[in-house]
Amino acid sequence: MKRIALYILSLLAFVCVCGCNRYDVEEVLLTRGDVSLTIKGEPVFVYDQNTCQAAYNSERNEYRAMTDDMTKYFVLRANQTLSDIGQEFSADLTYTTGRKEKVEKGLTFKIEKISNSEGLVWLWCSSRNIGLVIKVF
Question: Are 124 and 38 spatial neighbours (Cβ–Cβ below 8 Å)?
Answer without folding.
Answer: no
